Amino acid sequence: MFLIGHKINQQLREKRNALCGYPSSDSYRITLRLTKKYEMDKHGIILFDGVCNLCDGFVQRIIAADKEDFFRFASLQSEAGQNLLKPYPNLQDLKSIIYLEDGEIYTKSSAALKIGSHLTGSWKIMQAGYIFPKFIRDGVYNIIARYRYNWFGKKDQCMIPTPELKAKFL
User: Fold this and answer.
1) Phi, psi of 31, deg, nearest 5
2) Which of 128, 144, 150, 170 is the most buried (most CB within 10 A)?
3) pLDDT digits (tens, 9 = 90+) for 135-165
4) Per-residue pLDDT for 127 more than 50?
């Protein structure tokens, strides 16, 4: 009797997750494997556009400010980046910074603000962005994202980390 009820509850959860766009239980299993592989329980993971000069500059500044060695990085174009997004098909075409922490996914302005919350110094000023509603923050983010290649340029290939920084990249 218990097993039947458990099976029905599992099926209902699967349907709810599909309707809400949450990952399936298979995706959850993939996520658990990725969590172990990339030590996602110990580090925040930042996925960024590896050919964007603006994004690269943002990553370089985060690396310099990350005194506690909390963040790990992967470009959206890399194999690691694609593997991390596999359980989330709705995020695979997203041309945004994506931040993963403790099983939570943050995108666009929320990702930038959440990243800033882990850094010290002038990065704390970014937290003032939370006073604006998400639709306004993401609207500004979308404008910058749309024109970032025109304003800041684009690289032919992703950044190749120095030997000292390789441990920070997945």
Assistant:
1) -60, -40
2) 170
3) 999 999 999 988 888 888 777 666 666 777 7
4) yes
Position of tokens 């599909």? Answer: 18
Read off the pLDDT of residues 32-89 as tens digits, 9 standing for 90 and up: 444 445 556 678 999 988 888 888 888 888 998 888 889 999 888 888 888 888 887 7
**Would you list the DSSP string of 10-64?**
HHHHHHHHHHHTPPPHHHHHHHHHHHHHTTTTTSEEEEE-TTBHHHHHHHHHHHH
Amino acid in position 24:
S
Q: Could you tell me the strand order of the sheet in which 71-75 lies?
A: 71-75, 44-48, 98-101, 104-107
User: Would you call 59 exposed, middle or buried from its count of C-beta atoms within 10 A (0-12, 13-18, 19+)?
Assistant: buried
- The encoded tokens of residue 73 equal 């990085």
How far is it, in rounded angstroms, from Cα 117 to Cα 107?
Answer: 15
